[in-house]
């Protein structure tokens, strides 16, 4: 495993950096003048000092969005689609700047950041097209003198609370359908990665979105800001991506006014390799899914279950692949694994690793800190269900490998978790593929594929992994209300 030198003077994305919040078409400071620092996790250097809004400031953003709602919802779907398309083009035109900015504040390697810009932009393109396909229905009436029509209308002001691990795509996946449906949005990015959100606001402004339609509120007052977004009745919909614990809290807070919610929460993804699998393909899929963004994604493989007949072969090939990974500053072109986001992330990885080793696991490769927030990609063998890592999402570059002997056993092991976001398995048997895919208790199943995210498919989980779906034609459903109109007295 290679560690590459950390650059001391990384190139920056100057033209898109903003440090003020964006409210009602204006760049504004906090009324209090408060600010917070954004640091580069690879170097510890301060990237920028950003305005720190309080609850009253957030309320001003809500009021601006609410005032902008009537005019924006009354625009034709085609007009909204044109705005989204302009925004999409601008995002791609600034791909390199956005990618570098993203890498500076969240640490992911530059190749992945470039991929995220394209992935995030794809949602804007998709929903620009879906804006004109928000169809209703004409329902056969129950009597001859009536006509029944069903339409879909904008749900209203939408608040989004987004995570640091995908600073761009988690915004566009939410605001794309909201804007397409005629909903003004308020984006509250995390304190770790507000700069990418503000850069998107720069481009949204250039695209021509009216004042109040796209707002970004930066704040370190997460509890106060969250309460305002949940309890303010002018916000009709909240969309959140993050931990299950925080999602449950937001759900309780939204209950005060029965606000509609979408929650994309934690996962504990199993990755199953059956004895009839293409082992080389399975290794490739595991590498792509496990170590993307240093293991810091909600759909990352967390538990690898490998049939005893191919266990040794799989571990050997996976270990060999992991030893080639290069760890370093994401802005260095050769880096494949960047830093973890903060000390809390490093401590969690160390805690999971120590518990697994205490309970009998062995390190096949890795297992050490590399200084700062960097941690070696690690493979653990002889993992068991008693280990913390079997039940808790590690959110880091540690892959535990479990043995299993039969199909029903591994399905039960895979489903033995309160989470149900993503799952993966490899098999050449088409009958098994159908059986296992239907038996896995997850919202998404990758069959002989470790990379399942795309704008054309519904992203989301079941059980304690969330409520609702993002992306695809189904993504529009969560930003519209169904209205039934009954026309009587028709001759």
From TrEMBL:
<feature type="active site">
    <location>
        <position position="264"/>
    </location>
</feature>
<dbReference type="Pfam" id="PF00171">
    <property type="entry name" value="Aldedh"/>
</dbReference>
<dbReference type="InterPro" id="IPR029510">
    <property type="entry name" value="Ald_DH_CS_GLU"/>
</dbReference>
<dbReference type="InterPro" id="IPR016161">
    <property type="entry name" value="Ald_DH/histidinol_DH"/>
</dbReference>
<dbReference type="InterPro" id="IPR050740">
    <property type="entry name" value="Aldehyde_DH_Superfamily"/>
</dbReference>
<dbReference type="InterPro" id="IPR015590">
    <property type="entry name" value="Aldehyde_DH_dom"/>
</dbReference>
<dbReference type="InterPro" id="IPR016162">
    <property type="entry name" value="Ald_DH_N"/>
</dbReference>
<comment type="similarity">
    <text>Belongs to the aldehyde dehydrogenase family.</text>
</comment>
<protein>
    <submittedName>
        <fullName>NAD-dependent succinate-semialdehyde dehydrogenase</fullName>
        <ecNumber>1.2.1.-</ecNumber>
    </submittedName>
</protein>
<dbReference type="InterPro" id="IPR016163">
    <property type="entry name" value="Ald_DH_C"/>
</dbReference>
<dbReference type="GO" id="GO:0016491">
    <property type="term" value="F:oxidoreductase activity"/>
</dbReference>
<dbReference type="InterPro" id="IPR010102">
    <property type="entry name" value="Succ_semiAld_DH"/>
</dbReference>
<feature type="domain" description="Aldehyde dehydrogenase">
    <location>
        <begin position="27"/>
        <end position="484"/>
    </location>
</feature>
<dbReference type="InterPro" id="IPR016160">
    <property type="entry name" value="Ald_DH_CS_CYS"/>
</dbReference>
<keyword id="KW-0560">Oxidoreductase</keyword>
